[in-house]
Amino acid sequence: MKPESFTIPAPSVVGAAEARVARYDWAAVGADLDGYGCAVLPKLLSAEESRAVAALYPDESRFRSHIHMARHGFGKGEYRYFKYPLPDLIGGVRTALYPRLAGVANAWNERMNRNERYPDDHAAFLARCHKAGQTRPTPLLLQYVAGDFNCLHQDLYGDLAFPIQVAVLLSEPGKDFTGGEFVLTEQRPRMQSRCEVVPLALGDAVVFAVHNRPVQGSKGNYRVNLRHGVSRVRSGLRHTVGIIFHDAA
N or C: which end of the chain has fewer CB within 10 A? Predict the structure, then answer.
């Protein structure tokens, strides 16, 4: 069966997810993305949902691959890429969040003089990915123990890459783990890099720029280069789910 048949969650799942994401002030989210390259969605998942997603990690039947970061120089820790069909909660939220962010992504491309525009519908964007040979799902579940960290990086898996992604913290800081802060850096032309440390609670999501974003300067818009990572986990066990909107080559 073609991978495309596994991509889109059931309408009832998407409807529930759309109601979930509708409660946020998306104008404020867009303003934070424009101003800082990131925004927080408090309690995108409940505590129970967060722990249920984290509990999927040992179930190999849910995943298409298992990555040990140290083997590739990515840091220290591990993660697994989900396979299709995605868990309903993750697939539904992915589909519901996409149109909220596509407008921001299109505005950014216009400001950076890029011709590419993203469709409003996630299914249409995935169809574009699959036509380009990018058919593998990219949402992933990450696991860190004491001493683990994630080097600064960009999640680009092919020629087509949606410029915004989401990470949801599935563990409780101060109880399940210490350290392990989400970190975002911006490399600005002819200036020193700027660092943003984003505090998150259990179930909170951070929405952030993947690669580039525009910044308004005195002579118009200029482009900054972004990378994200996770600082060293000092104790305990930390799980995160990453929601990436493009599929991989």
Answer: N
Model pTM above 0.85: yes
Cross-strand bridge partners of residue 78: 68, 143
Domains and CATH numbers, the chain: 3-243 (2.60.120.620)
Q: CA of 85: how far to CAs of 56, 81, 88, 95, 204, in Å?
A: 14, 12, 8, 13, 24
149-173 CB burial, b ≥16 within 10 A, e <16:
bbebeebebbebbbbbbbbbbbbbb
DSSP letters, 112-173, are: TT------SSHHHHHHHHHHTT--B---EEEEEETT-EEEEE----SS---SEEEEEE-S-B
